[in-house]
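Researcher: Here's my situation. A collaborator sent me these components and asked whether they could plausibly form a single complex. I don't have experimental data yet, so a predicted model of the whole assembly would be a useful starting point for our discussion.
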Amino acid sequence: MVQLLQFTLNGRARVDAVQDNLLLLYYLRDHVGLTGTKTGCDGGECGACTVLIDDRPRLSCLTLAAAVAGRRVDTVESLGADGQLSAVQRGFHEKLGSQCGYCTPGFIMSSVGLLRRNPRPSEAEILDALGGNICRCTGYVKIIEAVKHAIELHAEGVAP
Amino acid sequence: MNRIERTRNVGGYTPLIDGPDKVSGRARYTADFLSRGMLTGRIFRSPYSHGEIVEVDVSEAARLPGVKAIITGADCEKTFGVLPIARSEHPLARDKVRYRGEPVAAVAAVDDATANRALSLIKLKVRELPAYYTAASAMAPDAVQIHKRKPGNIERDVIFEIGDVEEGFREADLVREITSDCAEVCQNQMEMHAAIADYDAVRDRLTVHASTQVPYYVHLMLAQILDMDMARIRVVKPQVGGGFGARSEALNVELIAALLARKIGGCVRLVITREETFITHRGRPQTDIRLKIGMRKDGRITAVACECDQRGGAHSGYGTVTILYSGSMLYAIYDIYNVKYVGRRVLTNTPPCGAMRGHGTVDIRFAFESLLDQMAHELKLDPFAVRRANYLTAPTFTANDLMVNSYGLPDCIDWVERESGWLARKGNLPRGKGLGMACSHYVSGASNPVNASGDPHATVKIKLDFDGSVVVLSGAADIGQGSSTVLVQIVSEVLGLDLSRIRIITGDSDLVPKDNGSYSSRVTFMVGNATIAAAQNLKSLLIAAAARKLEAKPEEIECLGELYRVAAQDKGIAFDDVAAEALKEAGTITVTGNYWTLPESRGGNKYRGAAIGGTMAYSYSAQVVEVSVDGDTGVVTVDKVWVAHDCGKALNRLAVEGQVQGSVWMGLGQAMSEETAYHDGLMLTGNMLDYRVPTIQDSPPIEVGIIESNDPHGPFGAKEAGEGSLAAFLPALTNAIADAIGIRLNDLPVTPDRVFAAIEKNRRASPASPPDANAS
């Protein structure tokens, strides 16, 4: 069955006809062409496909596109403004929180979700927020540094 | 050699030049190249572990509307494989299937659903054969041969003795032997394997995008499998989501995509699942080790004897090289002269293993450093003292003729001893806590290339054109390790220009020179040296042009990057004007830099295969690991890791730290939780929940000390940084556990159930007294 989907994607209203069994992940990648959101596993294991739905990190590989009707969805492509990277993006770039970069959009969206609900998280809260994202390159050490750097930048007024 | 005065462009903390793409979602990986009309490829895989193929019936699948092509083993007569001596694999099985999950047929269809439906209609009939899931069962006298050309199912056996091992053991004050069983592990890089093949039937040209570390090897194998002129093939390597060796050989994925594309005369996108990525495998083999060491009272090692069996899986892959690396690298870190090694690489009915990070060196290093620790304890020696008693003195050659010109191991050891507070804390920690240490090393690229064709080990080009842009052209595959960044840093260093002036193009065979690829930690060393040579050639041309313009001799010109001048003059001419002058004569300038390894670095000839292990320079690593062990549950927590890595010279400290931390952490995964498991050849751990990858919550702080031994042949003195620190973690961990609870764990991984079982066994054996560390 095809449904009419109305929602807000990266700050803009959008209307689409989607199959009711289409996953949000494939809707974003194959239909809209937002390939920043990554597929890293066969479902719910790795966090690479994390997007924000109404500011909360969600796995787009376990979410039906039709289920985001009326919601706000933000992907990694929504971050940054006026040609400048956002605080979390800068954190991951400047502190090498990203090596191969494949898990990075998921980590970044989980971190943005954290900073939007808690601009001053403790280290324990950072680990808790990123516990569902797998990275195979960094050993996570520099990811933690990246998020801490982002927290500082955010405190100076840079949007997460 | 290649020594140039340092400026700000190397030696600092430089974020990756492609970082902004990666954090914004703009970085494009193979699966991100979507275009209208491309078909979906899917692979039909064998549900049998071992059998002769009677029939592959695709007739019903072929009739399904939307199915555009189906191929089987009948479409691929040729074999592929990374080693020219061992090309045993068909992209799709022909005659026989040899492991569960081996590709048998492939479909190209209009969409995923149709392709999946087509797979369900393919019928495979086989005459089943006995299957072997362990090296021992495959080597049994009555075992059926998995490959015709390999009797006894032995891919390669290695036997060598250097010095006099018997005499060495007689000289020892203590001789001890251990056995160790290290589980098979898999890279599990974040990006699943993907290929997009586009065949232009009118012009007979093929373009393949592939998630590979070795675009050149993919190019070679595409030509071989498709029986196509190499000049008609273009291989593109976009961003790659990690490799760790899983992609250091051409995989069936890209070959199958190309076969499908040619069959339909169009474009096929083949992105395999996480489970299929596990089955494609190329990980580190399950390894059984029997190791014997003789030691004098002062810690000096007098002899080493090692037997090593590797369960290699169903195809040759890198197997011969892996089993040889295990032998040659086993003792080359220390000054050891009496060595015996018996290695067997065995073919089994499991997915093929490959060249995983730390190739061939990790499991034997685990056994070796564990036994050293145990013997140090028995001899009441500090484990640091035992290492110090066995140092090499550079420059030298090891007993098996491996060239060592820089040896930062002593500095690594001193650093971790100091930073971890070892002397004050060891033996004084609360019960259940412990400290352990160990060392490891690795090559900076193999001095003998896999495909020896006589051309240079590395070639880099730099283009200078009318716009004053300096563009580096390199085939080096950036897979996240930052190789493109380091090459740009090197060019900017030589030319004295800001990083932002330099651009780099990689990963497209139409544009860039051939490169052997990103494996065995070769890129910084080999491609780095070639890049220095290319940049120096460009600098010479620019200096000559500046001399013409300034009416001076070239040797009088001072190059300040953005400014060239005669030393005595106040003002010179700007880079753009120098470039314009240079172009007047030559038109667009393209310079080349080549790099060859020295013949004396290519290993010796004391046994067949002794060239494996030969490299221009070894990195060294030492680690201290601090653990807490919960005696009631067997849960081990790593509280902290101190790691010192001798990378010769850190060209990019940020990237070196990241590589070293990543290596240590990958060792942590192998040591503590990662393990592939099979039931009758069926992979049970083909996902990231059953294959336990450590999460951010399981992962310790890792403090990195960068040791710079300044290798005389390295680019600015640099050596490898991306692999050498993996192996030392494993024994440092188990040595720390032994320190904490007095129990030695020689099998990997040390999961809580295994630790708990060991604690229980120990408790039953000596119920009255608490266990004494290292009692044996």
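Model: Some features of this prediction you could bring to your collaborator: Chain A has a mean pLDDT of 97. Helices of chain A lie at 24-32, 87-94, 104-117, 123-129, 141-155.
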